[in-house]
Amino acid sequence: MATHDFISGFLGGIAGVVCGFPLDTVVIRLQTQTLGGPVYKNALHCFTSIVRTESLLGLYKGVAIPLTTSVVTEAILVSLYGTTLRLIGGPEESVLNIHSANVSLKAGALTGLAFSVVDTPLDFVTTQLRMQSKGIRRLDEARRLFTGPFLFLHQLYQEKGLISSLYKGSVATLFRNVIGYSLYFFGWDFFRYLLLPASGNREDLGFVRITLAGALSGCISVCSSYPFDVIQSRIQGDQNRSNPVYRSTMDCIRRTYKEAGLKGFFPGLTLALLVYGSASGIAMLVVSAYLSYVRGEYDNH
């Protein structure tokens, strides 16, 4: 089953990246701009500014990493969750109730903890690539500044060493993942349970209910972990790598609150809910469709 977990996660990862990446770039820009003198007025202004100065390709900066590696990490995430669920004695996939949702909460937290080891460096490189052209005003400047992930990693290695740089923002990532994935997988079981048809059969959920359950679980995950996502983005998006703006995670939290109060931890939240909610719904639909196909194949033999 672990192999099928991996394949389903891989397929779901592709669906999520294709649907969510452009608007996710806008979210990152909104999260990392200076709160005292923001460059972008709102999400629409940010989107049009990127397209105007960097062309449509500006929305896909850093996409090589998600397309080549993040879909693999999504597969790893699903595999980790499936393995963790089995190790702690979770119920069968066919069982949907409050108990199964509570077990998923624990398995999701452990999965988020382990996944942070993989997630932190990938997020750092992607965020740095997206932030390269911050403040540029002409399309030709954007084209000159844009570089691929491998050249960036080489430059990073020459500057100050690879490992310490790649795990910048790891504390914020850890909190984000433990909180976010615990509620994500809890919500995935809980909302499917709430949306069960009168027959009580999981196989009768249908693609609409499955997509809705995935979208809702994505939304509660985003809402609960968003402040740490913002802190991670601000730390990892800092372009001054030799003399970083923030000394630590707590320093970033204190300065963010001092600059903008509680609202400083939620810039771009509405757009993030749209991006991650829709991407999550589509990804979980793909995952469920694949696993249902696999189960059908087993039943026919």
Q: What's the short version?
A:
By secondary structure, this protein is mostly helical. The protein has helices at residues 2-32, 43-54, 64-87, 98-131, 139-145, 149-160, 162-166, 170-194, 206-236, 249-260, 269-299. The protein has eleven helices and no strands.
Looking at this protein, list some descriptive labels.
Mitochondrial carrier fold; 11 helices; mainly alpha; globular; 301 residues; disordered C terminus
How would you characterize the overall build of this protein?
- The chain has helices at residues 2-32, 43-54, 64-87, 98-131, 139-145, 149-160, 162-166, 170-194, 206-236, 249-260, 269-299.
- With 301 residues, it is mostly helical.
- The protein has one domain: Mitochondrial carrier domain (Mitochondrial carrier fold, Alpha/alpha barrel).
- α1 packs across α2 (43-54).
**CATH class group:** Mainly Alpha
Structural class: mainly alpha
- The helix/strand series, from N terminus to C terminus, equals HHHHHHHHHHH
- What's the helix count? 11
Average residue-wise pLDDT: 79
Per CATH, the superfamily is: Mitochondrial carrier domain
Q: β content, as a range?
A: under 5%
The number of E-state strands comes to 0
User: What characterizes the major β-sheet?
Assistant: none
Q: Whole-Å distance between the termini?
A: 16 Å
Radius of gyration: 20 Å
CATH architecture: Alpha/alpha barrel
